[in-house]
Amino acid sequence: MKNLLSLISLFLLLQVNGIAQDSGYFAISRGISYPQGNFASNDPNNNLAGYAESGGFLNLSFTYKFNKYLGATILYNLQAYETDGEPMTINFTQTIGVPMGIEYVYGSSTWSMGSYLAGIHGSFTILKKLCFESNLLIGYSNVWCPSISHLVYVGPWEVRQGKKNSTISFLIGAGLKYNIIGHVCLLANAEYMVARPEFKNVEIIKSDGPDLYISFSKPIQVLNYSLGLGYRL
Q1: Has residue 77 got a pLDDT over 50?
Q2: Secondary structure class of 93 (helix, strand, coil)
Q3: Distance of CA 185 to the CA centre of its chain
Q4: Average pLDDT value over all residues in the chain
């Protein structure tokens, strides 16, 4: 009887260990995102400037491992950035020749982007419970360009309407996965993501003249840092 109980206990232990192996995992993570390059520029003389400030993002992902080292990842990414519209308003007042001392206000909505990506996942075991991981992903992003308004007291005003467009996006990332207990793991990642949406026929409403329609592209480059939790299969 004692031998039978020992065999049953060993069988159950092997089953539990088998279930908790790294055949893949679901994960959720959040973090801070830093705009880079032209996307972070607030120079009104730079036509590619995005005026984006630091923002936040959310990742939902599923990773399946084909073997010990290689697998595939699918990822949904949602991120948003406040917009620094003041430099554009200052340039607007200078362009129309507003005298010094005249007050002005500006308003702007946020940059936001929702992305669906998939690609190659790599994994390398450093310690028993610690792995180095990397992703190389491609997909598409829905990008919302912010609306921006300039208002000069006792003077003209101008509003650029927001616009949505879709574009191809790329992501390269690396990080660490630590198996805390059972099926639960802790994730720490750094990611670099790029996209270049084009916005066509964006309306500019003017108080002192006919409305305008312009087209432009904005290169988006962001560096993301996140912490998350995963459920191992």
Answers
A1: yes
A2: helix
A3: 22
A4: 84
Domain spans of the chain, in order of start: 22-232
Indicate the fold that domain 22-232 takes in CATH: Porin (2.40.160)
Calpha distance 4→92 (Å, rounded): 84
- Of residues 213 and 4, the one with the higher pLDDT is 213
* Distance separating alpha carbons of residues 38 and 53, to the nearest angstrom: 12
Tokens linked to 101: 């001392």
CA dihedral 28, 34, 39, 45 (to 10 degrees): 160
End-to-end Cα separation, the chain, in angstroms: 33
Tens of pLDDT along 113-146?
A: 999 999 999 999 999 899 999 999 999 999 999 8
Short-list 59, 13, 14, 9, CA closest to 32: 59
Torsions phi, psi for 50 (to 5 deg): -105, -15
Q: How far apart are CA 191 and CA 138, in angstroms?
A: 13
pTM: 0.80
